[in-house]
């Protein structure tokens, strides 16, 4: 029934909205389109009416083809997008997504599967303000899997597995808002306290082979976060904490909590409504100081959530801060359209601390492509063609969206591309980027300051730098295309690429391209890495070189 209701909306209301921009061949052949082809259509479109149409089409097809497995869990974000852009279809959207959720949860293999699907379910529930039957099935399965794991995990004498188990229980109770977990919580508190009691001694260090006392404190931290109606256990947890403190108190970190207020300025595109708290628990993982600014980037905590916090301190009065405003505005603008099918970070806002330092708060991803490439090499990991196709498609599509918004990165390199454990790539570091207020056609050239990193900058710019020229007339999109092409080539672990981004060495660079095992990638790179920018393709044109047969929905 849910498919029929949403399909009716697709055939009528959504089609009427999109028909003026919907290609006739797509409409005529929509029933034969694969899920992957619909995804590609969605991520290469910047038209809201088309994206609504493709989102509904994807959900209808996914419901018919379910179960598809955990790799499709994040795809329910199409439902979230529709709820935001077509709230009048709320009931049919929720019914369709709920049907998918039910089918997928009935195939779940463990509590991690349940949590992944219900993570999407709770977002839909909150956004649509409707209960989902799938969440009730998720609760049923979560309880069953957690009881089974509870009976196993405490017999293993492995504190890390117990911590992971308690983390799942806390996640189900706190984030997924699962009710009826009282019995599970009580038995886990009891078992965890017994485990600690059996493994610690009243000396200043634990017996050889037993748990580290700091692990006992971590387990107690989780027990304190679990909610139980039986308050007698609060006393038991407190007593066990005191016993552990006699051996050794919890390590005192150097954490620092900051209360931040919204950064309000007429030059900012978006201003957050509320204050924001972060806790800094580590030294900055990146920092720099110039004549005018001190910059540092931290991994921080906002309650239980990891965030990335970028800090600017202005060192001189009357310093030009326009580039900071531009960076903030780029993150804000791209965050508005961030989803599972592009490479944009979630940006949580710009804030000031008590000393007027500027804080930019965004999604945290620990690994960049530089460390990822090193891991591929050191561990002899080979990615398959599907992974390359999906990463390349998302990146090219995302840079095309940026170009259409008048944003040019100007420093594309592995350090500025983050990657998570599911091979989702995110674009960062817009501190030298261009952000213009109007769109650009494919032949746009103007005079710009020359920016970039020596080993990744386009040949036409590197040649000018060699002549001590710091600004010139050039097409910033074409220079970004070249830089991205060099990054793509590094995925294939081809040696001796450094220094080949010159006009004279372009032929040698093309010999490296010939070593790539996939014909469609060789053709793609040949059209990105031509030393002549006139012969280099635009991001929009490059989409035609992605092998659609190789693209598959990635795990998110």
Automatic annotation (TrEMBL):
Entry superkingdom: Eukaryota
Xref: PROSITE patterns: PROTEIN_KINASE_DOM, PROTEIN_KINASE_ST
Every Protein kinase domain range: 283-556
Record protein name field: Protein kinase domain-containing protein
Coiled coil start-end: none
SMART domains from the UniProt entry: S_TKc
InterPro entries: Kinase-like_dom_sf (IPR011009), Prot_kinase_dom (IPR000719), Ser/Thr_kinase_AS (IPR008271)
Record-level GO BP terms: mitotic DNA damage checkpoint signaling
GO CC terms: cytoplasm; nucleus
CDD domains, A to Z: PKc
Any single Pfam family the record assigns to this protein: Pkinase
Molecular function in Gene Ontology: ATP binding; protein serine/threonine kinase activity
């Amino acid at each position: 029934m849910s498919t029929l209701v949403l399909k009716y909306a697709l055939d009528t209301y959504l089609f009427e909205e999109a028909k003026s921009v919907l290609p006739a061949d797509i409409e005529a052949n929509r029933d034969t389109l694969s899920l992957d082809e619909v995804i590609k259509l969605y991520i290469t479109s910047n038209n809201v009416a088309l994206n609504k149409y493709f989102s509904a089409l994807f959900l209808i097809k996914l419901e018919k083809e379910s179960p598809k497995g955990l790799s499709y869990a994040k795809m329910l974000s199409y439902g979230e997008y529709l709820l935001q852009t077509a709230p009048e279809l709320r009931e049919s959207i929720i019914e369709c997504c709920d049907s998918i959720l039910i089918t997928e949860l009935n195939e779940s293999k463990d509590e991690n599967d349940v949590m992944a699907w219900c993570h999407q379910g709770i977002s839909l529930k909150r956004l649509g303000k409707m209960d989902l039957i799938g969440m009730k099935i998720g609760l049923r399965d979560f309880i069953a899997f957690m009881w089974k794991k509870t009976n196993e995990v405490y017999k293993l004498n492995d504190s890390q597995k117990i911590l992971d188990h308690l983390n799942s229980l806390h996640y189900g109770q706190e984030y997924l808002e699962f009710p009826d977990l009282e019995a599970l919580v009580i038995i886990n508190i009891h078992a965890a306290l017994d485990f600690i009691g059996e493994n610690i001694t009243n000396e200043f260090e634990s017996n050889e082979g037993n748990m580290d006392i700091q692990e006992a404190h971590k387990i107690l931290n989780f027990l304190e976060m679990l909610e139980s109606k039986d308050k007698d256990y609060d006393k038991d947890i407190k007593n066990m904490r005191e016993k552990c403190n006699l051996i050794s108190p919890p390590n005192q970190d150097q954490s620092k909590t900051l209360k931040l207020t919204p950064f309000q300025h007429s030059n900012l595109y978006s201003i957050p409504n509320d204050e924001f708290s972060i806790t800094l628990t580590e030294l900055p993982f990146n920092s720099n100081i110039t004549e005018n600014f001190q910059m540092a980037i931290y991994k921080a905590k906002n309650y239980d959530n990891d965030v990335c916090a970028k800090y600017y301190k202005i060192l001189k009065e009357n310093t030009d801060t326009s580039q900071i405003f531009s960076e903030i505005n780029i993150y804000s603008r791209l965050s508005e359209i961030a989803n599972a099918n592009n490479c944009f970070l979630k940006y949580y806002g710009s804030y000031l601390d008590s000393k007027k330092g500027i804080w930019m708060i965004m999604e945290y991803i620990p690994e960049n492509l530089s460390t990822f490439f090193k891991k591929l090499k050191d561990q002899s990991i080979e990615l398959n063609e599907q992974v390359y196709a999906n990463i390349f498609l998302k990146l090219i599509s995302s840079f095309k969206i940026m170009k259409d918004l008048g944003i040019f990165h100007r420093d594309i390199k592995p350090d500025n591309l983050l990657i998570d454990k599911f091979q989702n790539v995110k674009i960062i570091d817009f501190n030298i980027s261009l952000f213009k207020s109007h769109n650009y056609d494919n032949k746009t050239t103007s005079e710009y300051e020359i920016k970039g990193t020596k080993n990744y900058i386009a040949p036409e710019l590197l040649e000018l730098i060699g002549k001590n020229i710091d600004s010139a007339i050039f097409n910033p999109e074409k220079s970004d295309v070249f830089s991205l092409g060099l990054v793509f080539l590094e995925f294939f672990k081809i040696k001796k690429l450094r220094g080949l981004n010159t006009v004279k060495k372009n032929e040698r660079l093309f010999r490296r391209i010939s070593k790539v095992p996939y014909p469609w990638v060789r053709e793609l790179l040949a059209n990105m890495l031509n030393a002549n920018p006139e012969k280099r393709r635009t991001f929009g044109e490059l989409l035609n070189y992605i092998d659609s047969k190789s693209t598959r929905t990635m795990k998110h």
